[in-house]
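Exercise 3.2. Students should predict the tertiary structure of the chain below and write it as structure tokens, then compare their answer with the key that follows.

Predict this chain's 3D structure.
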Amino acid sequence: MKIGNTSNYIAFNSYGGFTKSKDEYHILNTKTPLPWCNVMANENFGTIISSYGTVYTYFKNSREYKITDWCNDWINFTPGEIFTGIFEKDYNLIYGFGYSVVVEENEYIKKSMNIFIPKDDTIKIQQINLENIYGEEKELEITYKMEVALGVAQETNKEYIISRIKNNILELQNPYSLEFSNCTVFVMVIGNDDDNVSYSFDAENATTKIKIKIPAYSKISFSIIVGGTDKGEEYINYIYDKYSKSNAITKEFNKTKKYWRELVVRNSNIDDEYINIMYSGWLLYQTIVCRLYAKSGFYQSGGAIGFRDQLQDSLALISSKPEFTRKQIILNASKQFEKGDVLHWWHEHNGAGIRTYFSDDYLWLAYVLSEYISKTSDYSILDIRTNYLEDKHMGNKRELYDVFHSIPKDDSIYEHAKKAILYSLSRKSPKNGLLDIGDGDWNDGFSNIRGQSVWLTFFMMNILDRFKDIANYMKDFDMVKICQRERHILKYSIISNCWDTDHFVRAFFENGEILGAYSNNECKIDLISQAWAVISMINDLDVKYELNTCIQTANKYLVDKENMIVKLLYPPFDKPKNNPGYIKAYIPGIRENGGQYTHAATWLAKAYFELGKKDEAIEILKYINPIYHSDTKEKADRYMVEPYVVAADIYSNPEHIGRGGWTWYTGSSAWNFKIIEDYLDKK
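Answer key:
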């Protein structure tokens, strides 16, 4: 069955295409090169659907409490939830903002299934609609089997799961779970309450079996609801009563679609059609549903809040939903220690997180705060007070995973951001005046350099420029002077130590040797030093030559126009003299090791815009845009991943050149949106 004439689609590639309205992607051939997914979630519940079948569903935390088992092996993919009789074979898919629709037709019966997560309820609704287009009554059976996990993985929890049928509802619990023993997962069938639909549960195998009789030329609709609760039977009964009412599920489906449209759809007049499609809804949807809500995708099921990750994601919402950004800033400030460092990431449900020596995490608080204020003029946030975390010493460890509780001492958001800046400045090297890289800066893969970061120093210069205005507003004139003085000193250190012929180097090893210079056999140039040199010194007229030159050099060595790839560094690491860290474990040309790391590529576009080079900036945005990599079958077969979400990385390795890597769960979507909004959206 076809759900549309191929000529009606934009960028059709034999697998699928965008509708003319731009807000749906239709998959007509589900034998996609890799699983093409849709993530649907609210803040406490979510599911992932793919062209290969249902990936999995979770409650509360996408890693820690998976309802069904998660598989990210695309070669031997095992669905976490298995249907027979629908979503089984010869189906097509419609992906939209907040919903997926399975469409198929066989044996004179048209079938469709609307899958969505309501905004306010911790459930997944799978509304099945059947139409008999034949002149005789038809019978069919649909089964729905869950590979139940009720924890991190099925293999470690299966033997502890208790199942029962209560009031004709299937209930599942894992009483041995340390943190979710009070949670109940439930499955219910809600239909039209006539004799044409009957169902039963196999509790032991978590299977729902539904038998349907459809009279000639008639329609039948019913729903399978999967939910989770820590409120007991009261919540389960509430859900049953709410959705048993006439047309309640259809109304909720329309309400969900409306909610997401209002949240993510932007009307813009960007000249480039493909950039416009992504900007008009898909980038913001990816950012909110995946990064801020689910924190999960096909390639990673993380569940945790990253200090720098979700702060950067919230940048995309400053203009349209500033309350999201405000909330994120306040939450992150509460994850700071009195010293000024922060948790690298944490799980919100139990306060467990990891304390590290990463050097950029805490600075994103000041960066995002300053950007938020510059766009909203909401200075009231500076006076909001949040607590610090208890100080658990790391000893000889390079990282510490533990549960960290708040302590009675608190401070204003302004003081939290200020403390982060002062702490970073305290880690300045007396050797070259640059900031300590710790166990990595933005690039986690530089985990063994243990010297100084040139990029981080540029980043701090930009923050000091921004924060001095906030300090001035707060009448903290001592801090204003610190910002001005330290910015001047850092710039002098950069110019004196970090210029190599035609570009800026990337870092210094603990032994004093340089990374990102022509003297290196590998990583002679790194992208983000060049991009942030421009972003941080664009108003410094005395370095105009250096800024234009370093970007030209980046374009020469890092921008592959033929394959539409922007490499993070060149050449990739293979057998480095000095061990930079786990980045060298990646095959050359894969991920951070010389592939395109899209997060960094967005910063190159930003740098071009700052230099007034709009055409070059738009060219980079095209390289980042997934539609440009997938608008024909040939391109889609090489790129392999979804055409409607940004990939975290694209391979430059000759054996896999142009192949997309990690998708959905990447901060690249937020930065891509933010840069288009700031520089291209013609409001």
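Discussion points: The chain has 16 helices and 37 strands. The chain has a mean pLDDT of 95.
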